[in-house]
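QA checklist item 7 of 12: single-chain prediction sanity check.
[x] sequence parsed
[x] length recorded as 294
[x] structure emitted
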Amino acid sequence: MTLRPPGADYTISVVGDRRSPLRDFYHQLLRRPWWVTIATISAAFLIANTIFALAFAVTGGIAHSDRHSFVDAFFFSVQTMGTIGYGAMYPDSPGANLLVVGESITSLLLTALSTGLVFAKFSRSTARILFTREVAIAPVNGVPTLMIRLGNMRGNQIVDVQIRAVITRTEQTAEAGTFYRMHDLKLTREHSLSLSRSWSVLHSITFDSPLHGQTPESCAQADLELQIMVVGMDDITMQPIHAAHRYFARQLLWGARHADILSESPDGNLILDLNKFHDTIPAQPTEGFPYPRP
């Protein structure tokens, strides 16, 4: 089995996992785009009708149809499964009536499953959180600071927002073993009352930071990954939503900061320029950068 972590450009191959093609199929459809769900429901409908059409063509017993005609049997099956009932064709033999009973039960099950799936997709709240393409590292008040900008791309508000950041890197243990260790990053602010448009996530690289003493070369050598998670409540549906993003060592920009996207117009109103959301500008390092001395 092959897995692809969210936001990652690599896959994880799992050896020894027992194959179960139908396992979590429902959740897979919930996560897939709408066209995949509609295509799956349509395919299931057509396959079921094809199977019953073959049975009707072999059994016969459909009034006003060509005996053993697959086309007539297929259209009769569609009318039966869709509970259309034009009346032009109808079963007139015990075998055909038994097939109609079986198809009616199948139709009820397919309709219930499809209705539940479509309703679940409609009622499922999802976040549209935009993360900057790169992570900027530059001094803030003389302290090296890791900076990530995120924004809410919907017109609603996400209330009671919690944000977490974790770095994962390869480390060597005392026994000369390789360990993939996770470190929590202490953020300047981990909670906000609401998120409407933009928020800058900051982590000060002080002496107790897992990033203290690191360089672009050491981060690349340790296969460093930075994962950020945003959790909150949709103020319209009042359902919890979340979004996550993953950065790699090559996406860390040392000595740069994100360009300012908030400005004031001549009439005193504020302008939020999302066209500059991913823009970065060089940062002038302060004395002792990138790591201050005690």
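[x] summary fact logged: The mean pLDDT is 84.
[ ] second reviewer sign-off
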